[in-house]
Amino acid sequence: MTEMPPKIFDMEQLARNRNRAAENFEAFAFLKQAAVERLEDKLMLVRRSFSDVLDVGCHSGQVAQMLRASGKLTSSHSLLQTDISPYFCDIAGRRAPAMVSPAETLPAEPASYDAVVSALFLHWVNDVPGLLTQMRLALRPDGLLLVCLFGGRTLNELRQCLAEAETEVSGGMSGRCAPMADIRDIGGLLQRAGLALPVADADLITVTYPNMFRLMADLKGMGEQNALFGKEQHMARRDIFLRAAELYQERFSTADGQIKASFELITLTGWAPHASQQKPLARGSATHSLLEAFEIEQNDPQKPDQESD
Predict the structure, then answer these.
(1) For a designed S-S bond to 161, which of 35, 37, 106, 248 qualifies (C-beta 3.0 to 4.6 A apart)?
(2) Where are the beta strands (DSSP E) in 151-274?
């Protein structure tokens, strides 16, 4: 019997967070845009066009806008956007068809798309392996998966300061920042999902803010605030946040008094298996040993002798 993944994130709370962020999201979409640019960089390396594309976690349609401008869609293409937030879907629908969909269930028949993309959504999914598998099944043979999500180094400074402040003030600690996957773990999930030629890249973006509260306001504007299960049972006291802000300023400030916030973007690329794809040679198929190669080098008759003085 397959074990169900733990329910870390509250999907209803996540939908509420995204609904509240939708109307003014463009003012806070700089990290979404950074993620879209990374997907575009990968897409432009692919020498083909796509006719049927699915965008998972569309926000207000930034991926659709990029795809339409990329020249990578066929003239008769079909592009569908999905999001857990009906408010985001209403806005994204101005750029391409959009529909509300559960976070962990794709509205896709098997082998119905030749590309599935997602920018800054998968880090909220409870069952990432399951969703990646659904994405692979939704792809036609040799279909492309492109994903960008927040990685484990995201908001390390905020996590550290909130945890220490809560321990210091109340003597305990509760979850206030969403856990995020390490690149080694998330990269391995591509193979587990049955994707071929998997690649995982990561880079760290540092953003500066006047103080911790401005950072938290930005997270709210992005729809990236706390959506952990049971958050209502651990409402933070004001003194905890004030102490965390002090610690943040002391430990992670710049020369001009700003604070630094780290965001790790992990970009994933994979392909639905196809017979035409390159495959590693089978183990034991080499015709010469490494030892033979060294012996050839050492005994090379073409190699000139050193001249003597």
Answers:
(1) 248
(2) 196-209, 259-271
Q: How many CA atoms lie within 13 A of 138 on its CB side?
A: 23
3-state SS, residue 48: coil
Per-residue pLDDT in tens (0 to 9) along the chain, 309 residues: 456 777 899 999 999 999 999 999 999 999 999 999 999 999 999 999 999 999 999 999 999 999 999 999 999 999 999 999 999 999 999 999 999 999 999 999 999 999 999 999 999 999 999 999 999 999 999 999 999 999 999 999 999 999 999 999 876 666 667 778 889 888 889 999 999 999 999 999 999 999 999 999 999 999 999 999 775 545 567 899 999 999 999 999 999 999 999 999 999 999 999 888 776 555 555 555 545 545 544 555 444 444 444
The whole-angstrom separation of Cα 110 and Cα 97 is 20
CB 195 within 8 A of CB 145: yes
DSSP assigned state of 229? T
Q: Please report the domains of the chain, with CATH numbers, ordered by start residue.
A: 11-275 (3.40.50.150)
